[in-house]
Amino acid sequence: MASSCRLSDSSFSFSTGICYLKFGSLLHQRVRPYRCLSHEKKNRTIKSVAAAVPPSSIGNAEYRKKLSESYGFTQIGEPLPDNVTLKDIVETLPKKVFEIDDVKAWKTVLISVTSYALGIFMISKSPWYLLPLAWAWTGTAITGFFVIGHDCAHKSFSKNKLVEDIIGTLAFMPLIYPYEPWRFKHDRHHAKTNMLVEDTAWQPVWKEEFDSVPALRKAIIFGYGPFRPWMSIAHWLMWHFDLSKFRPNELKRVKISLSCVFAFMAIGWPLIVWKTGLIGWVNFWLMPWLGYHFWMSTFTMVHHTAPHIPFKTSDEWDAAQAQLNGTVHCNYPSWIEILCHDINVHIPHHISPRIPSYNLRAAHKSLQQNWGKYLNEANWNWRLMKTIMTVCHVYSEEENYVGF
Questions:
Q1: 90 CB neighbour count, 10 Å cutoff
Q2: Which family does the record assign (predicted)?
Q3: Which of 64, 82, 157, 283 has the highest Cβ tally under 10 A?
Q4: Structural contact between residues 400 and 309, judged by C-beta atoms closer than 8 angstroms
């Protein structure tokens, strides 16, 4: 449901989930309306996906309830007290959630390999009009490969570190993702989650960047607009293949991973084309790969992006607030949760990356019991995605985000 901001002379209020911002408080709250749909001479109505968040109001329970309805959340957590540390939160988790179980770990591999094989079979047998469904299934299945490699990178897949490096590399190869470059950058994302400049997952647009060059401005609008569900492709290209982005002691492992990826491209792609033709390469590899990047992009957005979740400068940033208050738990349809190994049970993963994917639900249940009122939770829905896609654009110190 769209929010409406009525420009008249009174304060902030809500009605049936629709947000009304009155003119008398706009300047005080520095709220910028995003989309003007209609104009009246005396009383103009401006409709937007969501209003900006006055930081001083987020502590109000009724305000958060109405805000969660407007944004598509089931709950927006209250601010975490300043005296709570990340160590305090970790210590409330049961020790069993950190335990590695080889049977459960290899079960995730079995699920991913089986679901991927089923997807390839579906693509080979589907008439043209059912191919999108087969691509969607197969793209989701290979997202499971990514999650397995993700566990390996966090040393939560196996007690044998060589096994983890081998499985992680193999899991990433069909995705053309170099395992070690991604691991190095992803570790930084966990250490600097939602920190301006430092977080390597993604950053909001800077106003100076947006205003600099008209061509760049247009590219940013498309990138953060209709192409945003595939923005991870740009991130993949920019962050993982440039050797200058890595420390000297990382380069040897980076080069090995790049060699593995290039070997897959040099051998795997020609084999696919030889056996199935160029159209077969599109059907069996490219379209599932684009499906994987849809999940890669949208999962990342949902996990850490909302109008009320701020990016902070390094001197203001707090680990506990960023990992607990700045991460979102999102429920997806069961088949997605199964194929993607519960990666969207994401808050415990940021409290401690050493928790294996198969223990994330138990860890989240513990967090709900001990820290439940501070959690951001949602069910995947259109309003949630619309809020992220149309509001969370340009960085604003006062409002967190300003839409294009």
A1: 16
A2: Belongs to the fatty acid desaturase type 1 family.
A3: 157
A4: yes
The terminus-to-terminus CA distance of the chain in angstroms comes to 20
CA atoms within 13 A on the CB side of 61: 1
Residue 357 is classified by DSSP as G
Per-residue pLDDT of 203-259, as tens digits, reads 888 888 788 778 777 777 877 777 888 989 988 998 899 999 999 999 999 999 999
Q: What is the pLDDT of residue 7?
A: 34
**Class of residue 392 by CB neighbours under 10 A (exposed 0-12, middle 13-18, buried 19+):** buried
pLDDT of residue 49: 47
Is 105 within 8 Å of 358 (Cβ atoms)? yes
Residue pLDDT, tens place only, 342-355: 999 999 999 999 99
Q: Measured on CA atoms in the order 2, 7, 13, 16, is the torsion positive or negative?
A: negative
Helix (H, G, I), strand (E, B) or coil at 197: coil
- Please state, for a pLDDT cut of 70, what percent of the chain lies above it: 85
Mind giving me the DSSP string for 104-160? Answer: HHHHHHHHHHHHHHHHHHHHHH--GGGHHHHHHHHHHHHHHHHHHHHHHHTT-S-S-
Q: Which residues contact 164 (CB under 8 A, 6 or more apart)?
A: 152, 153, 155, 157, 158
Mean pLDDT of the 188-209 span: 88
Distance of CA 393 to the CA centre of its chain: 15
